[in-house]
Structure formats: structure tokens, C-alpha cells
Amino acid sequence: MSSDEPSIFTRIINREIPAEFLFESERVIGIRDINPQAPVHLLVIPKDPSYRNVVELAEGDAALLAELVAVAQQLADEHTDGQFRLVFNTGPAAGQTVFHVHAHVLGGSLTEGRLA
Ligand code: 5GP
């Protein structure tokens, strides 16, 4: 994808393509992953598409990264027993396919479903 093209997440944020929204604030959304890899698989995404991965986000806006973690905890409290894995795939070789930073919130029993 050219960097001029909006990411799939920007298109979701702009309501150009549908998604199951679980959370929205001024700077962050939470949606259900379309292809779950765990019993509960949510995505927490900043609206700002400037940061391609968590390293860039940590360097560029640490407060926004902290907000993502807080939203992840809130969603985990609402959708799981409050315990979860927080995964930021970073780079194609690590499985990253969308270069608009996002946190995977993976919850539910580790023996159910395949974990990412
Ligand atoms: P990555 O592989 O970049 O770490 O994660 C991208 C995630 O976005 C994948 O888990 C994938 O299932 C999810 N995803 C891709 N396209 C869509 C979509 O259109 N809607 C939703 N809800 N999730 C998507």
C-alpha cells in the first residue's frame, strides 16, 4: 500500500467500512478483530495514523500509548475476566499487516482457540 492511501483502520474510523465498535473517544477506538485469534480478540487503535508501530508511538506520543493501554484494560474488564495479553506486532516478519499502530487485546481461556 502506498503511504498516501488511508489504512484499513482509518477507513473504519471514518465509517467507510463497517466494524463492531466497542469504544470511541477523541483519540482512540476499540473494535472487535474481524478474524479472532483468541476467544476475545479486540483491537485498540489511535485515530492518528501517523505512527506505523508501537516504537514510533512511544517515541512520538507516550501519552497516547498510555491511553491505548488504559483503553485495553477497560475493554478487558468489560469483555473478559480482566486478564489479557497486549500484543503489538512490529514489522512484517513479526506478523504486522496494517501499518497504522494498533494493540491486540487477547483474552479468554488460553486452552480455547488459537492465540496470535
Ligand atoms: P496485524 O497483523 O497488523 O498485527 O493486525 C491487523 C489485524 O487487523 C488482524 O488481526 C486482522 O484480522 C485485523 N483486520 C484486518 N482488516 C480488518 C477489518 O476490516 N476489520 C476488523 N475489525 N479487523 C481487521
Automatic annotation (TrEMBL):
Pfam families membership: DcpS_C (PF11969)
GO molecular function: catalytic activity
Coiled-coil annotated spans: none
Boundaries of every HIT domain copy: 8-116
Cited CDD domains: PKCI_related
Endpoints of the signal sequence: none
SUPFAM superfamilies with a match to the protein in the record: HIT-like
Motif extent (Histidine triad motif): 100-104
Entry-linked InterPro entries: Histidine_triad_HIT, HIT-like, HIT-like_sf
Active site: 102 (tele-amp-histidine intermediate)
Domain of life the protein comes from: Bacteria
PANTHER family for the chain: HISTIDINE TRIAD HIT PROTEIN (PTHR23089)
Name of protein: Histidine triad nucleotide-binding protein
Taxonomic source organism: Pseudoclavibacter endophyticus
